[in-house]
Design a protein that fits this description.
Layout lengths: L6 E5 L3 H15 L5 E5 L3 H4 L16 H8 L5 E5 L11 E5 L8 E5 L13 E3 L3 H10 L4 E3 L5 H29 L14 H6 L3 H7 L9 E5 H6 L7 E4 L14 E6 L2 H10 L2 H17 L7 E8 L2 E9 L6 E9 L3 H28 L15
Parallel strand pairs: 1-2, 1-3, 6-7, 6-8
Antiparallel strand pairs: 3-10, 4-10, 5-8, 5-9, 11-12, 12-13
Helix pairs in contact: 5-7, 10-11
Length: about 375
């Protein structure tokens, strides 16, 4: 049991970030730690109307949290690993990688349609360059449009058109019902009034009714872990997308706890680090670092420990999903970091470096980049 005071952990303030931080808090409290979550607003949180890849700086959702830790105000910070730049401040370490959540993406539709079911010209929402390229690679006939906001905001934008149309129809039916009061031959279109229908809606659906519709999406793509951790998965219909075709972003579904190198970091690692998740995400982030893709190029990297090897899939696309370099390799667990660097160099030689450089020129990038599509709820 700790003899020092409460462990104070930095977290972003979004609903999802707080939910994810609570997972870490509960894991530590089970080990008899006293834990306080401290909300820190980040640069990324302050920019709500730009696409993530236009933020222009790496770590827009990370930096301020780590600075509070380095300043000594807080003991550690909790991040979505997908948000973290591959280069960390020298005085900080990744103290723990808790057990990873669902790594892949999901396609959410209002009616349960799958990617294969979507008609030609269907509009799919995502602000991730990777997801956009992967969607267009599989379905070049789709229209992929930007989508930002919290998970609930994104879902509301998807559900809003159909719900608002139904609300209008039911309101008109109510007027007709009232106009036929006393008419025994009148048969109402709906069994329930619009108010009764509204009362049975979920909070998510009620939010969608009041949302202004700018783009009518036929589907949206989200991180599966974000949808699940938001508590909204059971309110919508979704399809899990294959991690072989829709290779996830490096670190997707994983959390990371950063802390100054020292006793606190070692204690946190001892109690909540998940070795398998750490190995897998180390492989993914090592390859990303070697390739230098950041979010300026559509890069998917997914590693999974299988016995003595780490099976690793990598896909690097151009921004329109027309060109790609894809490969899989089994890396020895014992030398996973070195093997990942070697794999990345081979990928670069096979053309991945050219695609990333092409994407950098198209973006007018100055060598810095922000994270991919931030996890839902942010």
């Amino acid at each position: 049991m700790r003899t020092r005071g409460t462990l104070r952990l930095a977290t972003r303030g979004s609903t999802l970030a707080r939910r994810q931080a609570t997972l870490v808090q509960e894991a530590l409290e089970e080990r008899r730690y006293e834990v306080e979550l401290v909300t820190v607003e980040t640069t990324g949180d302050q920019i709500r109307d730009e696409l993530i890849h236009q933020l222009g700086k790496t770590g827009a959702f990370v930096r301020e949290l780590d600075e509070r830790v380095l300043d000594g105000d807080l003991d550690a910070a909790i991040h979505s690993m997908k948000d973290m730049p591959t280069e960390q401040p020298a005085d900080l370490v990744t103290a723990a990688v808790p057990e990873r959540g669902r790594p892949g993406d999901v396609l959410v539709t209002p009616d349960g349609a799958t990617l294969e079911d979507l008609p030609s010209g269907a509009i799919v929402g995502t602000s991730s360059l990777r997801r956009r390229a992967q969607l267009l690679s599989e379905r070049p006939d789709l229209e992929v449009e930007p989508l930002r906001g919290n998970v609930d905001t994104r879902l509301e934008k998807l559900l809003a058109p159909a719900l608002q149309a139904e609300h209008q129809e039911r309101s008109e039916a109510d007027k007709e019902r009232k106009g036929n009061t006393g008419n025994e031959d009148f048969e109402p279109e709906y069994d329930r009034t619009v108010d009764e229908w509204f009362d049975d809606l979920s909070e998510l659906e009620k939010g969608a009714l009041g949302r202004e519709v700018e783009t009518e999406y036929d589907a949206i793509v989200l991180a599966g872990a974000g949808l699940e951790r938001s508590g909204l998965a059971h309110y919508v219909d979704y399809q899990e997308l294959s991690t072989s075709t829709f290779v996830p972003a490096p670190g997707q579904g994983a959390l990371a706890v950063t802390a100054p190198d020292g006793e606190t970091a070692r204690e946190i690692q001892t109690h909540i680090d998940h070795p398998r998740s750490r190995v897998e995400t180390t492989v993914e982030r090592t390859i990303l670092s070697e390739l230098g893709g950041g979010c300026i190029a559509p890069v998917g990297i997914y590693a999974i420990v299988q016995g003595e090897y780490v099976h690793t899939n990598v896909s690097v696309f151009d921004r329109d999903g027309e060109e790609s370099v894809t490969a899989s390799r089994d890396l020895p667990v014992e030398t996973h970091a070195d093997a990942a660097r070697s794999f990345a160099r081979d990928l670069a030689d096979r053309g991945a470096a050219d695609l990333i450089e092409q994407a950098r020129k198209e973006a007018g990038d100055d060598g810095t980049a922000s994270e991919e599509d931030k996890p839902a709820g942010k």
